[in-house]
Every structure is written in structure tokens, then in C-alpha cells.
Design a protein that fits this description.
alpha+beta, six-stranded antiparallel β-sheet, 42% strand, globular
Amino acid sequence: MKKQTVTLRGSTLGDAFGICWFLRDVDGVRTVGHGGSANGQFAELLLVPERNFAVVSLSNAGPDGTSFNQAVVRWVLQTYFGVTEQESESLPYDEAKARDVVGNYENDFMTFTIGTDGTGLRLDVRIKPEIRAAAKTEPPPDLPPADIGLLPGDGAEYIITSGSLKGQRGFFTRDERGAVVGVDMAGRLFKRVQKPSA
């Protein structure tokens, strides 16, 4: 295995290593993996180097392709190695912490909105209309909004708690003053959209 050349934050797949690989330990078993999707195609690759083992799961069924692939990987880890990934429990709703992360985020292709009804946090991720309009083939439909919760610690990480991405973890990026300026989902960074001053 090559030496780590940069330090990157990971996501549900684990800690990022170099470019595009995510390292994680599942119940004491070291894994290397990557997942992704493109217009209705979903892929998940997991390697277990110390056991000379790899599994790839491919799906072209949306919107549940990602959750299907992750279920296959979990089944493989349990069946072949006897290990089970423990699910993370989110913290109870905290209004002050919610205010810290509620807002609009975006990257070149998608918008990422976190809202609250005063009892919980809700996530809505959508492909931008201009991207849909410019696509040569119809992009997949947007996923329905999902519930999210903050994870224990410094409030830097979250977990999706409902919907087809249930169990997906991500993190918030903060500036030098501690303000949330971005959010990660599955290795994709969304920058916070500044609200216009009144």
C-alpha cells in the first residue's frame, strides 16, 4: 500500500486516503473502498487487502441502487468475515446546534438544503434545474427529503436517518471562526450559500 500523501476527511465509506480511496475498520477488519453513481448507475467497491478479497456491487435501479449496493457489502462482510458494522446513533434534537447547520449549500451540479421544523433536521438534495435542462439524457429523479441527525462529538458529523440513503454519514466544514461553510455528502463538497444581507 502506498504512503498517504494528503490528509482528507472521509465520509460513510471511511477516512479518505490519497485520491478516491476510503479506508475504514469494520469490527477490526481493515477495508479500502469507493462508491459512486452516475445517471441511474450505482457502484460500490470494497477491498479487504489482508484477506486478498474484493467485492463489487453494481445496480442500475434507482432510487435505491446505493442502499442495495451497501446492503450487499454488509452481507458480504457478515457472511465471509463474520463482522457487522455498528450503526451510529444520532443525538437528540438540539435547537442551537440545528441553527448552526440549517441553510442552503451547493456545488456545480446540485443543491443541498438543511431545514428544521423545530423538532428535527431535514435534508433535501436536488440536481440543479440548469443541469437537468442541459442533460442529453434525463437525469434520475431527485431523492425524497430525508431526516438527518447530528452525531456525538463536536457537531462536525451527521447521519441520514431515513430514506434510501439511511446510514449515510457526512461532515460539516468550518472556517477559522467556527462557522459552518460547507457540508460533505459521499465525498462531494457543497459550499454554503451566503444569505443576502437585509
